[in-house]
Amino acid sequence: MNRINKRTRWLYFLAVLFVVTAIALFITMDVNANKWVVKEYNQHLYSGGTMIGEGKLTDRNGNLLVETVGRKRVYNSNAMVRKATLHVVGDAEGFISTGAQTAFKSQLTGYNLFNGLYHIHKDNRYNLQLTIDNRLSVAALQAMGSHKGTVGVYNYETGEILCAVSCPTYDIENKPNFNPNDPNWSGVYMNRFFSGSYTPGSTFKVITTECALENVPNILEQSFYCPGYYRTTSGGTVKCNGVHGNESFTSGLNHSCNTQFAQIAATELTNDEMDATADEFGFNKSVDVNGIKCKPSYCDFSHAYTLDRAWGGIGQYTTMVNPMHEATIMGAIANRSGSTPKPTLIKKFINLGNLDYIKADNARTLDDLLRSNVTNYYTDAKFPNLQMAGKTGTAQISNGLPHTWFAGYSQRSDLPLVIVVILEKSGGFGLTDAIPVANRVMQEALSLYV
Asked: pLDDT band at residue 70, thresholds of 50, 70 and 90?
């Protein structure tokens, strides 16, 4: 009898062990199998280290971006399209890690957990239509000229990314023999819109404004005096970009007055309040684009002194901003709700939910303030027929000429688009360098979609 009981216990133990092992195997396959199937040892997917078993990628209008012909990946016939979409489409070797050919390998090979690769080359189930527009991408590349940097356009109603252009770039069908460590080709494999991180300069004054709206009851009624600088009680000085004299809060934002925003950050806000507002806006978290993790924007005032906070209030402390994240910040304001759709690169994956940032009342106030920047300072003449709102930035960096920014959007109901422009070390100003690029791209969008 004891022997039977022992055998029964062993059988129960083995049965439980089998079930646990099966569950562990299933979970492991669910998590990892989509990576395993696209490894280079699967020779029906690879030829000479190059991925050939992927399906076709098209833009939002069905225009070819890349497909497999025979045992070769073949790209769009237009060299400008190839260069403008390089960092979104990616390469078959995987050097551009966030490119669609690498990031969406499992989808492009037709893999699914239950059938594996059974459906490969059947029913076109492995083809993907992206949200980008090759025409708008070419317009962005041309507008950037010889500048390094990035231009991205994001639909704040649907979450679709219409272009994400990075420079430097190259023609993937005629790849030059370059050294990626050469400064002229620095970051050539990086999609700057997704993976870049930049000192924000005055574009961060939008965050400081929101922090003041949350924590200073009468901030919109305050007035400020700008002698061309702000000096803290400890003697540190923040230089302004002009001598603005007496200004209201709104006109100080219009003129991007460093004196005003350094003073607000230093005397009316605390480290904890600045960090809390940055966290509300999604800093220190990664924006997800169909599984592509964008570089998180960084903000931390926890150890800031008063002078640090003054510099931080104008976007010149240790804060760094990711361009895709900046686009979602502008989207939350443009919607006047404080939230914006999660971004997507795949046409069928819209309505993925929202990124909820700030209160609707404050979003509406920020929307009005950003519109006033254009009507009262930049002027609508710089953005004909676009009804733009936004903020420029000129970001000083330690090892070169400043980066120039424009982050904004059209308020037109038939053109719900955010645009972010960053020109690296352009040496100019957001007003003179970045705004013309933004206008040229948005004019193209106007002609394409309205």
From this structure: confident
Helix (H), strand (E), coil (C) string for the chain: CHHHHHHHHHHHHHHHHHHHHHHHHHHHHHHHHHHHCCCCCCCCCEECCEECCCCCEECCCCCEEEEEECCEEEECCCHHHHHHCHHHHCCCCCCCCCCHHHHCHHHHCCCECCCECCCCCCCCCCCEEECCCHHHHHHHHHHHCCCCEEEEEEECCCCEEEEEEEECCCCHHHCCCCCCCCHHHCCCCCCHHHHCCECCHHHHHHHHHHHHHHHCCCHHHCEEEECCEEECCCCCEEECCCCCEEEEHHHHHHCCCHHHHHHHHHHHCCHHHHHHHHHHCCCCCCCEECCEECCCCECCCCCCCHHHHHHHHCCCCCCEECHHHHHHHHHHHHCCCCEEECCECECCCCCCCEEECCCHHHHHHHHHHHHHHHHHHHCHHHCCCCCEEEEEEEEEECCEEEEEEEEEEECCCCCCEEEEEEECCCCCCHHHHHHHHHHHHHHHHHHHHC
At 232 the pLDDT is 93
Residue 112, sorted as left (phi over 0), alpha (psi -120 to 50) or beta, turns out to be: beta
Dihedral of CA atoms 392, 396, 401, 405 in degrees, nearest 10, equals -20
pLDDT tens-digit profile of 1-20?
556 666 666 666 666 667 66
Paired with 56 in beta bridges are none
In tens, the pLDDT along 7-57 reads 666 666 666 667 666 565 556 545 554 554 444 544 444 555 554 568 899
Higher-confidence position of 449 and 233: 449
Look-up: residue for tokens 């709102």? 389
